[in-house]
Each structure stands twice: as structure tokens, then as C-alpha cells.
Design a protein that fits this description.
Layout: H1 3-11, H2 14-32, E1 47-48, H3 61-72, H4 93-105, E2 110-114, H5 117-127, E3 134-138, H6 143-151, E4 156-160, H7 165-178, H8 180-184, E5 189-194, H9 206-216, E6 222-227, H10 242-246, E7 254-258, E8 268-272, H11 274-283, H12 285-288, H13 295-309, H14 314-331, E9 343-345, E10 352-356, H15 360-369, E11 372-373, E12 375-377, E13 388-392, H16 399-422
Helix pairs in contact: 3-13, 4-13, 5-6, 7-9, 14-16
Bound molecules: pyridoxal-5'-phosphate.
The site of pyridoxal-5'-phosphate (PLP) has 14 residues, from helix 5.
Length: 423
């Protein structure tokens, strides 16, 4: 061993040893709580009741043909990679045209592309609220919003009860009482919600929230930020989202639409006014300090929006709603035993179903063994005590597949009921 070897081995391993021990201990604690996450690869020939590919666009021939057409339309030598940050070499006429196309589709003044919904939420929440401002957020808001809020300079973050206009009212009234500047309009108040919640699949009462804010903040210093990740493509006119379904787009300060779910792509756009867009270009670090999406991703977003705006995905939206009604009806026919906790949480038009049980891993594993991919959702992704199996429907699922899944759940319920009675 050389002297320099001795030096590096003498100083370096001690810290990594302790570090690795700490990491392993954290993992073991998760293991003990049955909360350890693992990467998995799905076997072939399984039925997808799990992914967010709600319209089944990822495997749609219409999508594929149009997407490949866009890829083939560019001349030899056209760069597929963006080559840098949007602010340096990563911008293009294609990206700007795509933003205008998406903004028009969503009836928004402007749109700004981010590399993911995560980046969009982090960029918006970390940069836009000003020092001293107030952030009010739904208790089930996505992790990316939490991440953005952590980085934010806003004075205060206050949670309100999930999808509860009364909860928002209570939280806002308390802040108004505490700080007169809120009511006087001297501080901005941001209300951050999702239009469809990723885990529970329920639709937010956006109009009722607007009424609360209009009443309590007459100086018009209330600003809504609505994450439409799970609504994009699935809800609203031609899949434009819940905000447009309600016709309240002019009351929403920022909408975030993501493309990695129903749109078979990747990335996200922030819909906002021109000044806000310009501000984000200057201050959103998750936009500035990252390589912009390359042409293949832009082309796939373009493909999805061309299909949406031509109305080609409407039959898929319709088919998805038929399947939702079918699964909703079939779940109601399940025979349960009093000894096994099993409840279905489902918002009528939503493709996301929650099967609440104390043994979500066992139920998910029984369905997976029968070839139906569903996922157990455990804390910390959801609050303690809210464990569930999440079932997602897609336009490409069939009634037979749904009936098969129901059979699988029934068999598990019967078996668990028998096992519990024996105990
Ligand atoms: C509500 C919500 N917002 C944002 C995101 C992040 O979007 P992306 O996957 O594009 O990063 C997700 C994804 O899980 C989500 O469910």
C-alpha cells in the first residue's frame, strides 16, 4: 500500500461507514413500519390498473403515428437535444410555438414550459410568493408543492382541511384576525390546491373556494394556484381540465398542467399572465438551472395537444367514464366480512379509486398474482391510517378486465375473512 493510499484509506472510510450505517438504519425503520419503497419492474402480460396513463395514449396507434410523423418531419441534422437551459441554448421557435398552442387551448394568456410537474410546482412556489406573504394549502397537496413552499420566502404556510371550503374559511379568518395586513390587501394570499387529488381522486370544490376568498379578501389579494396534473386530458372540454370545465380560468392566477400522466409525455406548463411568466423566467431556479426538454419531448407534447384540440381524445374520455361507472357499480357488489376492514372511496367521475383496508400490501399482492397491477399506497406518501390500494382506470381497460379484478378482490376478501374468523 502506498503512502497516499494509506492517507485516503485512513481518513475517508470512517465517515462513509457511519453514513452508510445511518442510511441502513433509516431503511430498516421503514422496513419495520412496512413503509420501505422499492423499485419494481412489471412483468409482461399484466393488466394495468396502476399507471397514470388514463387515456391509454401511451400505446395508442393514433398517438404513435402522429408522434413519429413529427419526429420524421425534421431535416437531417436537426438537433434532438436542446443543448442547454432554456435561457441559454435550450430555447427554440418550436418550444415557443408549442407554448402558444397550449396556452390557446387552455384559454390562458401565456404558458411556460417546465421539465416536469415537480419542477413547475417547485419553481412557482419557491419564487412567486413574496416575503411576508401567506400560503394556504390543502392538507393533501402534492409533495412537489411542499418542496416549493419549503424554499419560499413567504412569511407563513397554513394548512386547511382537505377540499373543505369551511376549512379554508376558518384558516383565512384566523389569519385575518391575527394580521390586519391580510384583510387590507397589504399581503398576498396564495391558495394552493389540486383540481383532482392524486391519491384520493376527488375533485376540488373550486367554485366554493373562490366564493370564500372573494368574500374574505375584498382587496383582491387572494391568488389561486391550481395543480391540474390528474385532470389534464381527462376532465373538462376536450380534456382541458376542471378549471375550464367550471369556466373559472380568469379567476385562477396559475394553473399547472402536467404531461406525464394522461398525455403520454413528460414535462409541464404553467399557465399564467405575461408578467408572471416573465418573472418565472427570471426567478424560477428549477427552470433556469436545468437543461430544457429536447425536441422528442416537445414533439410528444405537441402530439398530445393536437389530439386533444382536434377532439380525437374525446371518445377516450367517454370510454373512460363508462369504465369508471362499471367499476364503481361492481365494487358495490363485493361481499365483505365484518372482520376485515374494507371501504371504497371514490368520487363519481374520477378514474382513481381508493380501496381502504388495514392490509393494503396483502390485497395488492393478491391482485398482482392474478395479473392485475394495483399498488398499495402507504405512509409517508399518504397520512398514517389512510393506507389503501389505489386503482386507476384507463380508456384501454375492458369490462372483462374490471370483472377479473373484482373477482380477485372478492377471493382475497373471502380468504381474509376466513383467516380472521379462525384467529
Ligand atoms: C398533483 C401532482 N402534481 C405534480 C406532480 C408532478 O408531476 P411530474 O410527474 O410531471 O413531475 C404529480 C405527479 O405525481 C402530481 O400527482
Amino acid at each position: 500500500m502506498s503512502a497516499s493510499d494509506k492517507e485516503t484509506r485512513g481518513t475517508a472510510p470512517a465517515a462513509p461507514g457511519r453514513l452508510i450505517d445511518a442510511l441502513s438504519e433509516a431503511l430498516s425503520r421503514r422496513e419495520t413500519r412496512s413503509a420501505r419503497r422499492r423499485l419494481t419492474i412489471l412483468p409482461q402480460e399484466t393488466v394495468d390498473f396502476s399507471s397514470n396513463d388514463f387515456l391509454s395514449l401511451a400505446t395508442s396507434p393514433a398517438y404513435r403515428t402522429r408522434f413519429l410523423g413529427h419526429l420524421n418531419s425534421v431535416p437531417e441534422g436537426f438537433p434532438f437535444a436542446s443543448g442547454g437551459s432554456r435561457l441559454l441554448d435550450g430555447n427554440s421557435a418550436y418550444a415557443e410555438d408549442l407554448e402558444r398552442f397550449v396556452a390557446d387551448f387552455h384559454r390562458a394568456p401565456t404558458a411556460l414550459l417546465f421539465n416536469s410537474g415537480f419542477d413547475a410546482n417547485v419553481g412557482v412556489l419557491s419564487s412567486i410568493p413574496q416575503p411576508g406573504d401567506l400560503l394556504l394549502y390543502d392538507e393533501l397537496i402534492h409533495a412537489s408543492v411542499h418542496e416549493g413552499m419549503r424554499l419560499s420566502r413567504a412569511g407563513k404556510r397554513v394548512m386547511f382541511a382537505h377540499s373543505s371550503p369551511q376549512g379554508l374559511r376558518g384558516a383565512l379568518e384566523a389569519q385575518i384576525k391575527e394580521d390586519p395586513k391580510v384583510h387590507q390587501g397589504a399581503k398576498n394570499v396564495f391558495v394552493v390546491i389540486e383540481s383532482i387529488y392524486s391519491m384520493d381522486g376527488d375533485v376540488a370544490p373550486i367554485k366554493e373556494f373562490i366564493e370564500v376568498v372573494d368574500e374574505l379578501l375584498p382587496q383582491q389579494n387572494g391568488y389561486f394556484i391550481v395543480d391540474e396534473a390528474h385532470a389534464t386530458g381527462v376532465f373538462g372540454p376536450r380534456g382541458a381540465g376542471v378549471v375550464q370545465e367550471l369556466g373559472v380560468q380568469d379567476r385562477i392566477f396559475i394553473r399547472v398542467h402536467t404531461f406525464g400522466k394522461a398525455l403520454a409525455s413528460h414535462g409541464a406548463m404553467v399557465l399564467c399572465g405575461p408578467e408572471t411568466r416573465d418573472y418565472l423566467i427570471n426567478y424560477a431556479r428549477s427552470l433556469i438551472y436545468t437543461t430544457a426538454l429536447g425536441f422528442p419531448f416537445l414533439a410528444s407534447i405537441r402530439t398530445a395537444y393536437e389530439l386533444l384540440s382536434a377532439g380525437e381524445t374525446q371518445p377516450l374520455q367517454g370510454q373512460l367514464q363508462r369504465l369508471i361507472r362499471h367499476l364503481h357499480g361492481r365494487l358495490a357488489t363485493l361481499r365483505t366480512s365484518p372482520s376485515v376492514l374494507f371501504e371504497v372511496d371514490h368520487f363519481p367521475t374520477s378514474p382513481i379509486f381508493s380501496l381502504r383496508t388495514s392490509q393494503p400490501r396483502q390485497l395488492a399482492s393478491a391482485c398482482q398474482q392474478d395479473g392485475y397491477i394495483v399498488r398499495a399506497i402507504m405512509p409517508p406518501t399518504i397520512p398514517e391510517g389512510k393506507e389503501r390500494v389505489r386503482v386507476c382506470l384507463h380508456a384501454g381497460n375492458t369490462e372483462q378486465e374490471i370483472d377479473g379484478l373484482i373477482q380477485s378482490i372478492q377471493s382475497w376478501l373471502d380468504l381474509s375473512g376466513k383467516q380472521m374468523t379462525k384467529l
